[in-house]
Predict the structure.
Amino acid sequence: MDRTTDDSAQVAGIVLAAGGGRRLGGRPKALLAHRGRPLVEHAARALREGGCAPVHIVLGAAAETVRARARLPGYVLVDNPDWEQGMGSSLRAGLGSLAGTGARAALIALVDQPGIGAEAVARVVAAYRSPSTLAAAAYGGERGHPVLFGADRWADITASAEGDRGARAYLRAHQSAITLVDCSDIARTDDIDTPEDLTLLE
């Protein structure tokens, strides 16, 4: 079913791209090369082409270098000075940056999953029904990314997002409310976490 422009504009996108790549020897994931460009560009473009507007990118490690090297016109860059505290701090920064945008939901994507593109984003965006919607891509029946949070849930998610757990505790507590959107046929969930994973980049 086609969504109207007005509907899709209700869902903002947030790319969590602040990590320092500790297990990669301190190489910030946002700057890893994929198809000749920094990984952060691919993640941001997937959200934009998948129907998210606006798209905010949370930066942390090497933020100034990311700004200098990556081509990110039209995106909102959000600095997370507390990025070393883990993904939870970036999720809080990203959701906080949407205040005043009129967004009714936020779709969260991770910078280090290049196998998740615009098609998967669009499928999860299409699951939006109301500001209380909770939806996530699923792979083989297991919940994965991207994840969509209706705006009515942001305050509780922000309050529970700590360390590297991000929204895991919240999602576990509200499992019965999550709409799972199968994306197994159009996306790969590989994370770029270790030097061995670098072979997944093109």
